[in-house]
Write a structure and sequence with these properties.
This protein has 188 residues and is mainly alpha-helical. Helix content is 62%, strand content 4%. It has a domain of 104 residues. Strands 1-2 form a two-stranded antiparallel sheet. Strands 3-4 form a two-stranded antiparallel sheet. Helix 2 packs across helix 5. The longest helix is centred in the N-terminal third of the chain and has 31 residues. It comes from Ixodes ricinus. One of its GO terms (biological process) is amino acid import across plasma membrane.
Length: 188
Amino acid sequence: MALVACSGCFLIGLSCVTQGGQYVLNLLDTYCAGVSALFIAMCEVIALMWLYGVKRFSNDLTFMLGKSPPWLFKFSWAVVSPIVLCILLVYGVVLSKPVTYNNVEPYPQWANSLGWFLASLSMMQVPIWAAVALIQRRKDPMSAFRPTDDWGPAEKKLLQEYHASLGDGVHNGVLHIPLRHTSDDKET
C-alpha cells in the first residue's frame, strides 16, 4: 500500500517539475494549502475542544506537564480559535478570486474548477471519516465521541496513573487501580 501511495504521489509530483510546473504548483498552493488547511484546522479545534472537551484536554496537559493551563488558554482554545478560524475560512472562500499566474495570466475556468475539486477532496475527509466512526458504532453512536478505555500513555504504569488522575479512578465505567503507593504501602 505504501508503495502504491508513494508511486502515485511521485507521478503527481512530476507535473510540478515540467515546463509548466510553476502553473501546477501555483494552482496546488492556492487551493490545497489555503482553504482546505483552514477547514481542517477548524474541525480539529472544534472536535478537540467541544467533543473531547476542554476539561479533559486540560487534565491531559496537567498530567503530562504537572501544572494546569491558564484559563485564558482554555478560553482561547474553546472560543477564540474556532471563531477566528471560521472567520478566516469564510473570508478566504468569499473573497477568493480565480487564480492568476504572476497576477497577469488568468487560469482557465477548468483549472479553477480542478483546484476547488482538489481542495474539496481533502476537506471531505473530515465528514467521511466521522460518518465511518458513527456507522461503526451504530449501537452506541455517542461512544464515537468518547475516548476508549485504553486511551492514554502507552506505558502500563503511566496509563494506570493517568486513569487515576481523572478523578475517582473510573474511566468509561471501568475501575482502574492506581499504581501510586503511600509511604505506608510496600511495593510489590
